[in-house]
Amino acid sequence: MGTRAVAAHAADPGREVPLDSRGVARRTHVCDAVRLLTWNVYQRPSWVAAFHDDPSLPPQTARLDGILGFLDGTSFDVICVQEAFSHAARRALSARYRHVYALLRAPDSIRLHSGLMILSRHPIVHRDGAVFRGALGGGREVDRWVDKGVMHAEMLLPDGPLHVFNTHLQAQPANADVRRAQIDQLCRRVSRFPGRAVVAGDFNLESDEQANLARLLQLGFRDLWSEARADDSCVTHPPGRRYDFAFSRGLRAEGAKVHATAFSDHGALSVECS
Predict the structure, then answer these.
(1) Predicted structure pTM score
(2) Helix intervals (H) in the chain
(3) Where are the alpha helices (DSSP H) in 23-175?
(4) Which residues form the domain of 268?
(5) For residue 217, what is the domain's CATH number?
């Protein structure tokens, strides 16, 4: 069983952008750099945070203030957010960007929504998404009660459309088989939309699982951190793990950085593309 589709909120279909032999979009207009951030903000439902929170971090309300302060001092074009479960976080984040894809949840679901958000300075002309399904893809342990999946927004940049996919995969190291099934469903979704695209999010992959990303690479995507900083390790989660990724097709990475803060258990991964 595959992903369960979520109805689109706009009828505009995906449009193809021609690519050159390197997989980079051909342009007829000059495009400014696209600044992307992906961040698991660790904003749990308030009733969960009240009883089960990371004691090494400030309280959730203080962390939210820190997250908002960080974002207010930046100028990202696109932000992919994971674990925005609290109402306060969703309201505050939505208020900071003009174009927002705020909620992914399966129809008639009794589970918690996905916690995903896409924030954009550019108009969103189409949005859709899918919740992971199946004996494995549907999740395990606590994640069985969350509508984890992939959120898709097509946004209109000055030089043409860009597809942005935001995802959050199953947690806990022992659940590699679930993450593998979810990557398969993610790739099936992404493959439906040709042209320039970004796939970003919290993949929760251990180092020995990263070969499972091969299918995404076969769709023409490149790891933006490796493209920008091939000689540097990328650590987004202690101790020394890389759980967070950003991939692109049709954009070049000009720079990348992990922003370590006390506001989440994940570092924020930013990439500048052209």
Answers:
(1) 0.89
(2) 46-49, 60-72, 87-94, 176-190, 214-218, 224-228
(3) 46-49, 60-72, 87-94
(4) 4-8+32-273
(5) 3.60.10.10
